[in-house]
Amino acid sequence: MDRALLKEREAFKRRALATPSFKSLAASGNSSQYKFGVLARIVRHMRSRHQEGETHALTLHEILDETNQLNVGPKIKQWLLHEALPSNPKVRESEEGSGAWVFNPALPVRDRKGLLKLLRLNDIKGLGGVLLDDIQESVPNYARVMKTGMHDDNIAEYLDRQGIKSMQDVARVFRPARRKTKARRTAPTRITDNDHLAHVLHDYEQQQ
Description:
By secondary structure, the chain is mainly alpha-helical. The protein has helices at 3-18, 25-28, 32-51, 60-66, 74-87, 112-125, 132-138, 142-147, 152-161, 204-207; strands spanning 58-59, 91-93, 100-103. Among the domains are: 28-103, Arc Repressor Mutant, subunit A (Orthogonal Bundle); 112-161. The protein has ten helices and three strands, in the order αααβααββααααα. Strands 1-3-2 form a three-stranded antiparallel beta sheet. The longest helix is centred in the N-terminal third of the chain and has 20 residues, at 32-51. The termini are far apart. Residues 26-110 form the TFIIE beta domain. This is General transcription factor IIE subunit 2-like.
C-alpha cells in the first residue's frame, strides 16, 4: 500500500480514537437522562389530563400507552413503580397498593365551590390568597371556572352574603376653590349741612 495512504489511515485512526462516542439515549435505555425524560413526560401528561377533567386513575401500562412509551425496558418500569412515582410529589396512588396513579394537584379543590370555600378558609385563618398558577394546575377546566362567577359583581354579592364588606372607592372628590369676588367700591357721599332746609333758614347776619 502506498505510504501516503498508510499515513492517512493512521491519522484517521488517531482522530477516531480521540473523538468521544455518543450513544443514543433511546438505544441505551438505562441512562439517567433518558429515565428522567420518561418520568417528566409522564408527569406532564398526568397534569394535562387532570386539567382537562380526566381525574380517574391509570395503571403504569396505561400511562406508558397514552404517552407512547411502551418501548421502555423492564428496568425503567421497575424504577418508575418502586422509586420514581412514589417519591414524586406531583403524582400519587389512588389507593395504597392499587398500582393506579393520579395527578396530585397543589390545591385540594376540583370546582368553583371548592375554590370559594378554600378562599374563605384562608381569609378566616389569615393565610391570604392563592397563586393563580396553583389554581390553573389544580382546578379542572380552570378557565371556565374563573370566568363563571368570578366577575366583580358576583364577587361583591358573594362577600355581602358572607358578611364581608368589599372595598369601595372612597377617594375625595376634588372641587375647585371658588374665587373671591372683589367688593365694589361705592363713591363717597358728600355731606352737606342743612342743604335741604335752605328755603326755611334765614341769614340773620345780612338783616343786621
